[in-house]
Amino acid sequence: MFSAVFPEGALAERCSALPGQQLLRRAVIAPVVVYLESGQVALGLLDGDVLTHRMGTVDGPFWLEASSALLELPALVDVVAETPAVFRKISRTAFRHWYNTVPVEVRKLLLDLARAHRQQSELAVSRLVKDAEARCAEWLLRHAQTSAHGALAVMLQQHKRLIAAQLGIAPETLSRVLRHLRERSLISGSGRVVHLVDPGGLRSLAGV
Q: In what order do the strands lie in the sheet with 85-91?
């Protein structure tokens, strides 16, 4: 499939990597899209040269951060070779050209899948590096809707235990965090509607 879409040539440069070599850097929009042909890579967050927050490993063949490429967003994680690896570097221009050639229905499906994957990946990264209050603040900001008067609010349409599970915390912890946020005047309301009184303060707490 790969050779049919991206034939040999400058648009699909074949490279190799040794264990420990970084293939993608988080928070950076790379000029290429990377396709791992063979070998194993680790996904996570680097602190210097050490992968301190590890999210798992993948084996080739595998597209690395393809969701970020489709959404024109920076890579969400660092990618480091675990074993000798062979990969292809495809220019973003070539990648977008291929994407624009597929049927509209397929493009929409790929985009929807990319958005869902990105959201789940962002949540996984958040669980690794953020405490319960920061995760809760980020969740509130992501689900907030603007009223006709310009105020932000979140309608809690799910049970708290389901929201807590998404955040990777206990329901009791979620209740405690929401209480603390109310005490700090960042949010208000104790029913099904949570008003975001201080969105700037929540963004600062969430680190976004």
A: 12-17, 85-91, 32-38, 62-64
* Terminal-residue alpha carbon distance, the chain: 38
- For residues 131-142, one letter each, b for 16 or more C-beta atoms within 10 angstroms of the residue's C-beta and e for the rest, the string is ebbbbbbbbbbe
What amino acid is encoded at 127 in this protein? R
Name the H helices within 54-206: 66-71, 92-101, 104-129, 132-143, 160-167, 171-183, 199-206
106-139 pLDDT per residue, tens: 999 999 999 999 988 887 887 776 788 888 998 9
DSSP letter (8 states) at residue 185: T
pLDDT tens, residue by residue, 73-104: 999 899 999 999 999 999 988 898 889 999 99
Q: Is 80 exposed, middle or buried (0-12, 13-18, 19+ CB in 10 A)?
A: buried
